[in-house]
Amino acid sequence: MTLDCDILTVAGSDLRIMIYTAEPDSPDAERLALLTVLGTQTLAARDHQ
Protein backbone atom coordinates (compact mmCIF):
# COMPACT_ATOMS: atom_id res chain seq x y z
CA MET A 1 0.00 0.00 0.00
CA THR A 2 1.37 3.42 -0.92
CA LEU A 3 0.54 6.21 1.52
CA ASP A 4 1.60 9.79 2.09
CA CYS A 5 2.64 10.63 5.65
CA ASP A 6 2.36 14.08 7.23
CA ILE A 7 3.65 14.79 10.71
CA LEU A 8 2.11 17.62 12.70
CA THR A 9 4.07 18.97 15.65
CA VAL A 10 3.14 21.22 18.54
CA ALA A 11 5.63 23.99 19.24
CA GLY A 12 7.26 23.59 22.64
CA SER A 13 6.05 20.03 23.03
CA ASP A 14 7.15 16.52 22.12
CA LEU A 15 3.63 15.85 20.78
CA ARG A 16 3.50 14.64 17.19
CA ILE A 17 0.56 13.43 15.14
CA MET A 18 1.17 11.25 12.10
CA ILE A 19 -1.47 11.38 9.37
CA TYR A 20 -1.54 8.78 6.61
CA THR A 21 -3.45 9.44 3.40
CA ALA A 22 -3.83 7.75 0.03
CA GLU A 23 -4.51 9.10 -3.41
CA PRO A 24 -8.29 9.78 -3.58
CA ASP A 25 -10.37 7.14 -5.41
CA SER A 26 -7.40 4.76 -5.62
CA PRO A 27 -7.29 1.10 -4.57
CA ASP A 28 -5.00 2.19 -1.73
CA ALA A 29 -7.65 4.68 -0.53
CA GLU A 30 -10.16 1.82 -0.42
CA ARG A 31 -7.71 -0.33 1.56
CA LEU A 32 -7.03 2.50 3.99
CA ALA A 33 -10.77 3.01 4.50
CA LEU A 34 -11.09 -0.70 5.27
CA LEU A 35 -8.36 -0.41 7.89
CA THR A 36 -10.33 2.29 9.69
CA VAL A 37 -13.07 -0.23 10.50
CA LEU A 38 -11.08 -3.43 10.95
CA GLY A 39 -10.60 -4.18 14.59
CA THR A 40 -13.42 -1.92 15.74
CA GLN A 41 -16.06 -4.66 15.62
CA THR A 42 -17.11 -6.48 18.74
CA LEU A 43 -16.86 -10.22 18.31
CA ALA A 44 -19.19 -12.41 20.33
CA ALA A 45 -18.74 -16.11 20.89
CA ARG A 46 -21.50 -18.18 19.35
CA ASP A 47 -23.14 -20.86 21.40
CA HIS A 48 -22.69 -24.09 19.42
CA GLN A 49 -24.69 -26.95 20.88
What is the secondary structure topology, with strand pairs?
Layout: E1 4-9, E2 16-21, H1 27-37
Antiparallel strand pairs: 1-2
Task: Profile the largest sheet.
Answer: 2 strands, antiparallel
β-strand amount: 15-25%
Total of helices: 1
CA gyration radius, whole angstroms: 17 Å
Give a count of the beta strands, DSSP E runs of length 2 or more. 2
Low-confidence stretches: none
Mean pLDDT: 87
Topology as a string of helices (H) and strands (E): EEH
Shape: flat
Share of helix, binned: 10-25%
Structural class: alpha+beta
Terminal Cα separation, in Å?
Answer: 42 Å
As laid out across the biggest beta sheet, the strand order is: 1-2
